[in-house]
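User: Show me a protein chain along with its predicted structure.
Assistant: Here is one chain, sequence first, then structure tokens.
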Amino acid sequence: MAYLSLYRRWRSSTFSEVLGQPHVTETLMGAIREDRLSHAYLFAGPRGTGKTSTARILAKALNCEKGVTAEPCGECTRCREITEGSSLDVLELDAASHTSVDDVREIRERIPYATAGGGRKVYIIDEAHQLSTPAFNALLKMLEEPPGHVIFVLCTTEVHRVPATVVSRCQRFEFRRLTGDVLTEHLKHVAEAEKIDADDPAIALIVRHARGSARDALSLLDQAAGVAQGQVTRETILEILGEAPEDVLLDLADAIASEDILGVFAKVEELVELGWDPRQLLVQLLEEFRALFLAHRGVSDPSVDPEHAERRRSLAVRFTSAHLEWVLQALADAQADMRLSTHPRLTLEVALARASNLEVRETQTVVARIERLERALLQAATAPQAPAPAPAAPAPAPDTPAPAKKAEPAPKKVAASKPAPAAAPVPSRVDGTIAQQWAAVLEAVQSVSKVTFAHLRDSWAVEANEQRILVGFDKPFHAEEITKRSDHIERISGVIAQVFGRKLRLETVVGERPSDGGASSGEVTPPSAVDLVRNGLAAEVVEEVSRN
């Protein structure tokens, strides 16, 4: 007899053998006992969680020679035929390879015929989300009103791709990923029954790699049993998976903790020369730094052996929480970039270089804060100024005449109130030459946005009338940047209205600056970081310390 893989030999044959899905099996068993079966079911969930096996068990329960029962015998002719896939009353359709409407029409033509054994006809459509739109449309009427002896079971790993019109005609069951404890216990039971000597670290690594799929776990155990020389060890599983040993990952983490960029690059070079795939290495590093993040907070990872767990704890204390978060973010960004990268090794090296350089993180943090400050300054500068409320007169005493109005309460209230943080100074109207007015515009724009000022600083006012102001640029690039972005126009127009005392339409012209230097002959110095903080947060300098 041909060899059967472990996951086929250990496929569940009764509801009680289905792993980790009591919310599904108990509901179906209750429906069978009370004769409340639906005409269509939708089994959705990750791969390897028992969807197709449960569908076959349901078919056995409805066609067992002992009658409709929640506990089919699995030994009668009908049960064996369903297990072997040769039953005439149970049709399994793989939608991945039968996606056309003709395949669904074939089902429709066979529906009216009675069953061969007198039970129920069960149509199991696996990977149902692969059906084409016409096939789904042809299936709708059958799902809604099938004959009384027909039951449909649709199985899918991507339920979001199944049309809502199909989902609404089915009873939906969500299959969950198997927990680590359930998979571990199952693997130990199978290994003992199959006389496979597998140690606990190897089983723990299989469980972690399977990610809740019993089929993946049994397939990996089966493969390891064929490779191992008498015993399945953690090293055997690592070799099959093509993963780097944890010692190597911890060496890389050690170099990152020391901010040793050259050491990180040397380690990557060594691993690539040994044949490790940068993509797989990146996935492992993400898992490793997640474990370090948990270890930093005193949470242990049961999937590692005690030797690595101890080293991980000692290494985790060398990181700060912010550094670990920075590393995880850098690696996660690299994983997204690597999907489209033609040079995965370079993507990995850049990510590790960022993770090893805290100065980059601090610089990005400062830049982000400055950008938030600029947005706050812009909002404060463009917000309409609300008129100050009129001071309320004090209420007169009951037995005395009302006193004359006094202006003292209002100044007291204003003085006692805490001043709101001032943003950029709002310019006032300037009377003078157009050059003086444009210089005031530049100074005000500089305090509002460094980006806008960078394009405007070398400009000059050519002429202005009651409707428009013509501004000259010596470089077309700056003129185009100013006119094509509405945020630049909004900032400049608001300042011009304040300085000139009226709204003016901004127009640009490219040419040579006049010999007298134009309106911007006096160069305006860009604001320093101290000026930004002082103006944006209403701060003051307490003490200046020189650094030698």
